[in-house]
Amino acid sequence: MKSILVWDLPLRLFHWLFAASFVGAWLTAESDEWLSLHTFLGYLMLGLIAFRLVWGLAGSRYARFSSFLYGPRAGLDYLRQTLSGTAKRHLGHNPAGSQAIFLLLGLGLLVGLSGLFVQGGEEQRGAAAGVIGYALGKAIKEGHEVLAELMLLVVFAHLAGVALESWLHRENLPRAMVNGRKEAEPDAPAVRSHTLVAVLLLLAVAAFTAWWFQYRGSETGVAFIGKKLPESALWQEECGSCHQAFHPSLLPARSWKSLLAQQDRHFGDDLGLDAATLAQLLAFAEPNAAEQGETEAAWKINRSVPANATPLRITETPYWIKKHHEIAAADWNKATVKSKANCPACHLDAEAGGYEDAAIRIPG
Q: Are 11 and 61 a contacting pair, CB within 8 Å?
């Protein structure tokens, strides 16, 4: 037996980058604050899969798909043989491992593509922006999560298989995926390292990373800034003179109509607005209210409010309550927050009215 190079450098680089991107995406999936990183990792996964498909046709001997094209029956037979301790050692991918590889590539592709449409629908951002609406984006998100869970199960099965085969054949397979070398018969052919391809792949990943994160502004620190919403100097002047000028998209039109009709008793104050000013404010509020679904927050707020309800505070809407119910009292009491009406304390794009998930930064 002699030690030869079996896994070329591009394959090993892909393997660990792909694993890291999936783990990172999984860990950041439930956090709005990490949404931009989660999205970046999703795009990275898709790019890595595209490379692997090419390398599966043009790569070295053991990286090519043709070297491990086994049917499901062969995979099951090998698994049974492994459990009985009679499985034959393979220098490249074994039949059961090949099933895991194709499943991981297929599921990774479906997870990444569904993520594109979730981003395009729910966030109205990214490559699929504007292709579908919020409702369909939300539905696809459920499928996206199921696919990710299935992929995680395949990852666990793959790790269990690697551990079992390492024990059965007395060889360290994870180490082989690091240094690329395995023990082989004297006449077994070694592969080339393909260092240049690996360097180009690494440079491509580095360039994409730099391109992605250059959009993180020094003040906002977010990758996605929402589309510019309609503005009104009068609205900003009248509403912003006492508190943040909440954009009309954060309440239904009937709420703004009711608020303006009661302007003489506006939460204990008399706004003293004349009829002409009231008419101009209403003319801005009604066509830009939550029903228009200009942002994800607007669409979800409007969807959460019953048709027979007319909330007068944004904090009274069911969506707002659901979104904030897990925030600890200590966070509300922080000196930089103090009030539930102080949206800019946590939402970096509050003044613009976008309330993007990626723009949430809870102080401390």
A: no
